[in-house]
Design a protein that fits this description.
- This protein has about 200 residues and is an alpha+beta fold.
- The chain has a single domain, classed as NTF2-like, domain 1 (Nuclear Transport Factor 2, Chain: A, Roll), CATH 3.10.450.100.
- Helix content is about 35%, strand content about 30%.
- The chain contains 7 helices and 6 strands.
- Strands 1, 2, 3, 4, 5 and 6 form a 6-stranded antiparallel beta sheet that branches.
- The longest helix is centred in the first third of the chain and has 18 residues.
- The radius of gyration is 21 Å and the shape is elongated.
- It starts with a helix and ends in a 9-residue tail after the last helix.
Amino acid sequence: MNKLIIILLIALPHFLMAQSKCKKSDIKENLELYFVLLEANRLDETLNFIYPKLYDIVPKATLAESLDEMMTDTTMQIMFTNSTIQEIEDIQKLNGVCYSNVHYTYNMNIHIFDSDPSEPLDLNFMLDMYQGLYGDDNVKLNKDEKSFDVKAKEALIMINDPQYDGWKLLEKKTGLEALLKGLIPDEILNKKTGSTEQK
């Protein structure tokens, strides 16, 4: 009997640690670090925060190459600032995996450079395009600097899957609905749900 009590006492902290993994405070901490890397333009490092099951569909090396091309693009410079979490929805646990929908905002500056002086930039066309994506009131064109200031509202899904270490994320971008449906349960994609998980 004494041995059984000792075993239970040893096992209890590990059990409690496992139960406390799905916390909103950990989501906040992970996302704030993700935003720091994003704003420092360390985009290659942000790939470590992505839900690894995505890489079964789109190889990590392919995404890394795309990010590298964007970072070395001499025709455009993109900077992110003031990334702010607006809401972390209640955590829901399905089949041993924890999920939470997160809403956030950020500012983005897009600076366009003339790659070919013989072909003038159509800034008004680009303005219409960005306003279509982010809303008329959220995009400002500075014609003298050939830049756009964007105020964006976005959402993502945080996932704590026992197969991986800690919270990972997937962005909820327009056009990615079919991909997300293959990775995330419909209950998470379409509903706000409560949770009894520790916060």
